[in-house]
Design goal:
Helices cover 39% and strands 19% of the residues. With 106 residues, it is of the alpha/beta class. The chain has one domain: NAD(P)-binding Rossmann-like Domain (Rossmann fold). A 4-stranded parallel β-sheet has the order 3-2-1-4, with helices on both faces. α1 links the parallel β1 and β2. α1 packs parallel to α2. The longest helix is centred in the C-terminal third of the chain and has 15 residues.
């Protein structure tokens, strides 16, 4: 049997990201759910296994912290190998700022 493909869904704990994670699970991908909310992340990983993922795991990740993103990459490669798909749909909200008022670096 061929090795399962792996999808990493950054921002996969809720909303569109969760739906994407579940869809990859239905197609028998191994799924890595990355996000800040540990409770929702673990629940989403369990839902992915129920939906058909041969393996699903949650890695707590804050995309606003480069060290956290690096830790995600190391965890994925260390446990499941190089991913075949990476989806970034993490929402970043800065209270009180409008998109047009932010620098491109933000």
């Amino acid at each position: 049997m061929a090795e399962a493909l792996t999808a990493v869904i950054i921002g996969g704990t809720s909303g569109i990201g969760r739906a994407i994670a579940l869809r990859f699970a239905e197609d028998s991908y191994q799924v890595v759910v990355a996000g800040r909310d540990s409770e929702r992340g673990k629940e989403t990983a369990l839902a992915c296994e129920t939906a058909g993922a041969p393996r699903a795991l949650f890695v707590q990740t804050d995309v606003g912290n480069p060290a956290s993103v690096e830790a995600l990459a190391q965890a994925v490669v260390g446990v499941l190998g190089t991913p075949h798909v990476v989806v970034n749909c993490a929402g970043v909200l800065q209270s009180g700022k409008h998109v047009l008022d932010q620098d491109l670096d933000e």
